[in-house]
Automatic annotation (TrEMBL):
Family the UniProt entry places it in: Belongs to the CorA metal ion transporter (MIT) (TC 1.A.35.5) family.
Name of the protein: Magnesium transporter
Organism, scientific name: Punica granatum
Keyword Membrane attributed: yes
InterPro entries according to UniProt: CorA_TM1_TM2, MRS2-like
Length: 109
């Protein structure tokens, strides 16, 4: 009788240990899914920043082209600087929103 009692207690402890182990594995899977979700959010923000950096770089390219010591006859007009600057900023903003809408339509973001 004493051995049977010990056997029942051992089986009970074994069953409880298996339940705890399964619970720990499920918790680990849940944490892995949560971390994966956070990693995806960080990747989306990184992609958004890269698109913004690309649009600003194109604006800098245009500014660099106009900054060369070449005669373009734009320097003779008073508002040419402000018009060119506004055009570059507007073009970069439009390019950013076009790329953003394209990435949203393709469900990348």
């Amino acid at each position: 009788m004493l051995l049977e009692n010990y056997l029942q207690r051992c089986e009970s402890c074994h069953g409880q240990a298996e339940r705890l182990l399964n619970s720990a594995r499920e918790m680990e899977d849940s944490i892995a899914v949560n971390l994966s979700s956070r990693r995806l959010e960080v990747s989306r923000v990184e992609l958004l920043l890269q698109v913004g950096a690309f649009c600003v770089a194109v604006g800098a390219l245009i500014a660099g082209i106009f900054g060369m010591n070449l005669k373009s006859y734009l320097e003779e007009h008073v508002f040419a600087f402000w018009l060119t600057t506004a055009g570059i900023i507007f073009g970069a903003a439009v390019a950013f929103f076009l790329m953003y809408s394209y990435l949203k339509a393709r469900k990348i973001l």
